[in-house]
Amino acid sequence: MVHAPERPTHGAPPVRINLYSDTQTRPSQAMKAAMMAAEVGDEQHGDDPTVHALCDRMAALLGKEAAMFLPSGTMCNVVALNTHCRNGDEVVAHESAHILTSEGGSHAAIAGVQINPLRGPRGMFDAETLRGAIRARGRYSPPQTLLEIEQTANIGGGAVWPVNLLNELTGIAHEQGWATHMDGARLMNACVAANLSAAEMCAGFDTVWLDFTKGLGAPLGAVLAGSEEFIGRAWRWKQRLGGSMRQAGICAAACLYALDHNIDRLADDHANARALAAGLRQMEGVAVEEPDTNLVYFDPAGAGMTAAALQGALRAEGIAVSALGGRLRACTHLDVASPMIGETLEAIRRLLRA
């Protein structure tokens, strides 16, 4: 049975500290003003100047020839895999990758590809693991055509793939004649944490996308970048999937505002995540994963309270966290100020003592 998205818990107080996800961010008044002032046209017809400005800027930022604006990051992945692959091809990715765990089976349903799930700690795998996944070419094996990597690794704890490892892996893939694709949902978090430019981080990838609806604070939108030839072919999939839009400059303006104002401040989110992790680590019995970026995974079971029970108790106090794989996840973002971290820690201490 397929369930509808969650609705606010009946009788629960309003959320006052939202650590559920950085997708919960709300556009600021200044971002809304930029949206309302945007010059617009028909995006599907190629007439929206603000969308063109965003795509040109993103192609330069990511070090690629061209880019396209899409409503969501998931659609970026679906468009990219359908453009890179044919029915029956194999994509190599980590077993916890978003394309496997969180996209509704779209790549099997639409692209007709299979995904070879590789294992490794913190949502990452090494060169030896990748080489071990290479199949002998022949009629018995699916054609391996694409290496996919998610930066940062969400279920891996928001871990940042080191750029030297990325370059090694993409080098192996290109030796095999595969294309390479980066799911860059939180790419700028990785760049800020590693003190690298986006172009440096994704230099080995043929295609890459950036999501604007997470730490960058836009209400919707993602940009997929690659070669001129690739983006030209990808437009057919954008059209097929209903991703071609009309006066999309209103939304593209929010993304441009985010590029100007919301990248450097990601370091504040990372500092808040480290402070939250440090406070949790001081609580006896709470297992905490050290965050690379803005995601803090922790398990209170050793303190005598299940993750689900603590999540519910926090929600009753207006504090929202998410649960993934038996752990709790707290996500810091631009709507979470540092005093909220102290308040959250105090609430958790009190609930665990009780």
Which bin fits the share of residues in helices? Answer: 40-55%
CATH T-level fold name of the largest domain: Aspartate Aminotransferase, domain 2
Mean pLDDT: 96
> How many domains, as an integer?
2
Question: What does this protein look like?
Answer:
There is one protein chain. With 354 residues, this protein is of the alpha/beta class. It folds into 2 domains: 29-261, Type I PLP-dependent aspartate aminotransferase-like (Major domain) (Aspartate Aminotransferase, domain 2, 3-Layer(aba) Sandwich), CATH 3.40.640.10; 265-353, Aspartate Aminotransferase, domain 1, CATH 3.90.1150.10. Helix content is 40%, strand content 16%. It is built from 14 helices and 13 strands. The protein has helices at residues 29-36, 49-62, 73-84, 98-101, 106-111, 127-132, 163-175, 187-194, 198-201, 228-240, 249-261, 266-281, 307-315, 338-353, and strands at 17-18, 66-70, 90-94, 114-118, 144-150, 179-184, 207-211, 222-226, 287-288, 295-299, 319-320, 322-324, 327-331. It has a 7-stranded mixed beta sheet with strand order 2-8-7-6-5-3-4, sandwiched between helices. Helix 3 (73-84) crosses helix 10 (228-240). The longest helix is centred in the C-terminal third of the chain and has 16 residues, at 266-281. The model has no long low-confidence stretch (mean pLDDT 96).
